[in-house]
Amino acid sequence: MDKLISNNKLKLSVVLLGGLCSLAYYHLKNKFHLSQFCFSKKWFSEFSIMWPGQAFSLKIKKILYETKSKYQNVLVFESTTYGKVLVLDGVIQLTEKDEFAYHEMMTHVPMTVSKEPKNVLVVGGGDGGIIRELCKYKSVENIDICEIDETVIEVSKIYFKNISCGYEDKRVNVFIEDASKFLENVTNTYDVIIVDSSDPIGPAETLFNQNFYEKIYNALKPNGYCVAQHLNIKLNHLYII
């Protein structure tokens, strides 16, 4: 009985997390322009009214690739200080210099607390950084990745080979579709689910609501774990006040 209660509490926390994400998204969507950017031949700058008076800028060494996929604008450029940079709809997704800090924390925390996880799902994460880290675990037998935008995967394989190398692992299965639809009929399947989504605009919008996290709840095994990328409370604190 104690184990059942513990498992229910664990899975309930996933649903509560979904509720918090939904609440944050509701306030941000109604109060702020979520993200804006500009770039010239020399600088790329990402800024937002959510953190007034601030911007994150990188000096551009060379524009390597730019296109508009079915879902979003995709940009890859080489910076002078952070290596190559992946940008989706004007929002920086990763830089070669410091991507490890994000991908390692997102992966190794849930994988360490989970007891010999065998079946793992990655939502989003088309760049492959999470997959690369998951492939380090011998206990893992199956890694499913559900990414809505195939262009992100293709671009990452070309320009970020050291990050996307996990796609070569035979345990990895790629599903190109909306994760919310993918999870509709999935129950009691995954030991760990990692939601490596972009921000709650564009194609990732369906991943920031209560309904999506209820599907996560159902897809997890009773003692499963979920970790999710969500908004930065330090930068997005204004909606709380």
Number of domains: 2
Largest sheet: 6 strands, antiparallel
The outline comes out as globular
What's the average pLDDT? 82
Proportion of residues in extended strands = 25-35%
Beta strands, count: 11
CATH architecture of the largest domain: 3-Layer(aba) Sandwich
The total of helices stands at 7
Q: What is the CATH topology of the largest domain?
A: Rossmann fold
The helix-strand sequence is HEEEEEEHEHEHHEHEHE
Instruction: Report the C-alpha radius of gyration, rounded.
Output: 18 Å
* CA(first)-CA(last) distance: 41 Å
Family: Belongs to the spermidine/spermine synthase family.
Domain PABS: 41-241
Active site: 196
Keywords: Polyamine biosynthesis, Transferase
Question: How would you describe this structure to a colleague?
Answer:
With about 240 residues, this protein is an alpha/beta fold. It folds into two domains: about 55 residues, Spermidine Synthase, Chain: A, domain 2 (Roll); about 130 residues, 3-Layer(aba) Sandwich (Rossmann fold). It is built from seven helices and eleven strands. The longest helix is centred in the N-terminal third of the chain and has 30 residues. The chain starts with a helix and ends in a 13-residue tail after the last strand. This is Spermidine synthase. Pfam families: Spermine_synt_N (PF17284), Spermine_synth (PF01564). One of its GO terms (biological process) is spermidine biosynthetic process.
